[in-house]
Amino acid sequence: LFAIFAFATCGGYTGQLRVSVDCMEKASSNLSIAIHFSYPFRLHQVAFQAPLCEGMRSERLFLAGDYSSSAEFFVTISVFAFLYSLMATVVYIFYQNKYRENNRGPLIDFIVTVVFSFLWLVSSSAWAKALSDVKTATDPDEVQLLISACKDQSNKCGSVHGPRWSGLNTSVVFGFLNFVLWAGNIWFVFKETGWHKGAVKQQGGPPEKQASPFGQQAFSPGSFDQSGGYGSQGEPCPPSEYHQVGSSTFYPNPM
């Protein structure tokens, strides 16, 4: 959603400024010279007509600067980020099981998220600098310096109105906001990768051996004594009801 706002506010921008040239010969004056410019801000191709204040002659002038590379780079990153976000949403909703089958899906998602975070930072910074230069190049006071008639102090040049920058300023804000969102999402994507899960398993250590549920001990001949007393486990043993003498066995008289 923020990517849509970023490329829409930048790619759909159209600006206009107006300057006036009041010549000593009033017939040659032009008090409303309109200059239109728009994305991708190839200002050196923006032309306008200005009077020379010499009869009815006029000159064809161009604005200065070409800022298309930064603007187009910013819009391109915005469009691709939007398309990837849309594709990732479809995968998360409808193909969650295949996404988690192995480590390839989360790993690709993690790498792409890191790359887009870096590209958002670079493109937003470049576009912010280019926007500052565009504002300077389209400042009515700067445009007046291009007009030959304004160099003659006998003529009066002025600014009617300048461009409105609210849309482009918003695009810069959305650009850096997208960087914050993508950079903050790196941790959550990293948690889905095998790198994070493997680290968690190593920190957990080997599982502990479980004790017998009944606390049973292995049988040994010393665990009981025919003559009573205590066995090797420290537990009392009942006295035997019979004992051997020589090779014969005598049973106690029940009487």
Provide an overview of this structure.
With 255 residues, the protein is of the alpha+beta class. It contains seven helices and nine strands. The chain has a three-stranded antiparallel β-sheet with strand order 2-1-5. A hairpin with a 6-residue loop joins strand 3 and strand 4 (58-62). Helix 1 (2-11) runs antiparallel to helix 2 (68-94), helix 1 runs antiparallel to helix 6 (166-190) and helix 2 (68-94) packs antiparallel against helix 4 (104-137). The chain is rod-shaped, with a radius of gyration of 43 Å. It starts with a helix and ends in a 5-residue tail after the last strand. The model is unreliable at 204-255 (pLDDT under 50).
Classify the oligomer. Answer: single chain
* Mean pLDDT metric: 80
Structural class: alpha+beta
Distance between the termini: 100 Å
Radius of gyration: 43 Å
Strand arrangement in the largest pleated sheet: 2-1-5
Low-confidence stretches: 204-255
What's the total helix number?
Answer: 7
Shape: rod-shaped
The biggest beta sheet reads:
3 strands, antiparallel
User: Beta-strand level of the residues, as a percent range?
Assistant: 15-25%
Helix content: 40-55%
Query: Using DSSP, what is the number of strands?
Result: 9
Secondary-structure element pattern, one letter each: HEEEEHHHHEHHEEEE
